[in-house]
Write a structure and sequence with these properties.
Elements: E1 12-15, E2 18-19, E3 25-29, E4 32-37, E5 44-52, E6 56-66, H1 92-111, E7 117-118, E8 132-140, E9 145-149, H2 176-184, E10 194-199, E11 204-209, H3 216-229, E12 231-236, E13 244-247, E14 254-257, E15 267-270, H4 281-295, E16 302-306, H5 314-318, E17 323-328, H6 331-343, E18 349-353, H7 364-367, E19 372-375, E20 396-401, H8 404-416, E21 421-428, E22 438-444
Length: 445
């Protein structure tokens, strides 16, 4: 393959020796790593170079010469060009095995730790699971139509035109094409860049971001669309605080977390459409059960829940312990967490607003002794918190992670600096058909 900066148009054969952490096949051509979209481990493919980089190249499959025995036919008609999913062509068992391998490699390479026990993977329904997300909108004059969808796989600058989405919540997945039809007839078609969606147990909400005021005609069209399809319609003329309902007047978004224990009441959490909630409702329930199993909350325990959000973990834990404190950086989430506690009759949960990526060791909650801790940080992880927590009284930590590299780094800190043992860990398939790795780990000392 040529070493010039130009991208050759001639396809080349490649043997795929690995599956990358982003779900692309990995090959070596003339000593250089090539990431091949659409290729699976063990396959022989014909590929075409897409883009050169200094240390690696990117390519796309033109033809699969020798397919993997784990290759399956993608269910979604838009799979080839939509970036929403990258692993629909790989069977479910192999998908979860690949994620488990990514987690193990990160523990070994970054944290220099190995769990004493690998937990069985948590899996659920792989279709129609996505209850939250963002759709891009673009009015393409050259094509003479409005595109609504996720970004294109091969060129993220462009919007992939999709009619339906197989992984999206069924209240919206089959209707993505109808959104394009709706927008194409609106006056503000060129000033609506995105639509966010969020579903509770009983209602799906759409948030239309608009850069210019909407005409009465457009407002009527959006209202009629919501009424026809049973969707709550919100408008967002500015930042997140500008979001407000158009129809109905007072929509209610909420989801229930079953306790799994006849002696313990369920918890219901209300939320706003742009609030962070777990994308997969079924897996959130399964994750909650595993978290409680690992944390083993006792009636006398005092528990600290960091990065608590709406209280997704805090409130179910509160049903089982003497006291729990949740800490979160976003004021609105903390306010709604406290409201959810009151709404559920929970009086042993307290919440604090604090930026957990800054030093909080002087805060009252950080100085107190905690029997157990729960960590559920964003991708950046919790290393800043681990500079001053946990205290010596803390004997058990459950860490829920959305990024295996930051979990592995923080596992190394807990083991090597705080004297914990990595008792168990495993993956949770929160995002089926994607390369995203959600995981959970238990630390004890």
């Amino acid at each position: 393959m040529s070493r010039s900066n130009s991208v050759p148009s001639t396809p080349f054969e490649a043997h795929i020796t690995d599956l990358g952490h982003d779900g692309r096949g990995v090959a070596r051509i003339d000593g250089k790593t090539v990431f091949v979209s659409g290729a699976l481990l063990g396959e022989q493919v014909l590929a075409k170079l897409r883009k050169r980089h200094r240390h690696f190249d990117e390519a796309d499959v033109v033809e699969v010469i020798v397919p993997s025995p784990h290759r399956v036919e993608p269910r979604c008609q838009h799979f080839a060009h939509c970036s929403g999913c990258s692993l629909q062509h790989l069977d479910a068992e192999s998908q979860i095995a690949a994620k488990q391998r990514v987690l193990a490699e990160n523990f070994e390479r970054i944290g220099k730790v190995t769990p004493q026990l690998w937990l069985p993977p948590l899996t659920g329904e792989p279709w129609g699971y996505r209850r939250k997300g963002r759709l891009s909108v673009r009015n393409v004059m050259k094509k003479g139509r409005v595109l609504v969808g996720f970004r294109e796989e091969q060129n993220p600058r462009f919007v992939a035109e999709i009619q339906q989405c197989e992984v999206m919540h069924p209240a919206l997945g089959p209707k993505v094409g109808l959104l394009a039809d709706l927008l194409s007839g609106m006056d503000a078609v060129d000033s609506i860049p995105q639509i966010e969606f969020a579903a509770g147990d009983e209602l799906m909400a759409l948030v239309f971001r608009h850069m210019q005021p909407l005409s009465e005609r457009d407002l009527a069209a959006l209202t009629a669309f919501g009424q026809q399809h049973g969707l709550a319609i919100y408008l967002q003329p500015g930042g997140n605080s500008s979001v407000h309902p158009l129809w109905p007047e007072n929509p209610r978004l909420a989801f229930r977390i079953a306790s799994g224990d006849a002696a313990v009441a369920d918890v219901e959490l209300e939320f706003q459409p742009l609030d962070f909630v777990q994308v997969n409702a079924d897996m959130n329930q399964r994750m909650m059960a595993r978290t409680l199993e690992l944390l083993d909350p006792q009636p006398t325990d005092r528990v600290l829940d960091l990065f608590c959000g709406l209280g997704n973990f805090t409130l179910p834990i509160a049903r089982r312990v003497a006291e729990v404190v949740g800490v979160e950086g976003e004021h609105g989430l903390v306010e709604r967490a406290a409201q959810n506690a009151a709404r559920n009759g929970i009086d042993n949960a307290r919440f604090h607003v604090a930026n957990l990526f800054e030093d909080q060791r002087a805060a009252d909650w950080a100085r107190q002794p905690w029997d157990k801790m729960l960590l559920d940080p964003p991708r950046a992880g919790a290393d800043k918190v681990l500079e001053y927590l946990p205290h010596k009284q803390t004997r058990r930590i459950v860490y829920v992670s959305c990024h295996p590299a930051s979990l592995a780094r923080d596992a190394g800190i807990l083991v090597n600096q705080h004297g914990f043992k990595l008792k168990s860990a495993g993956v949770m398939d929160m995002f089926p058909h994607t390369a995203h790795v959600e995981s959970i780990a238990l630390f004890e000392r």
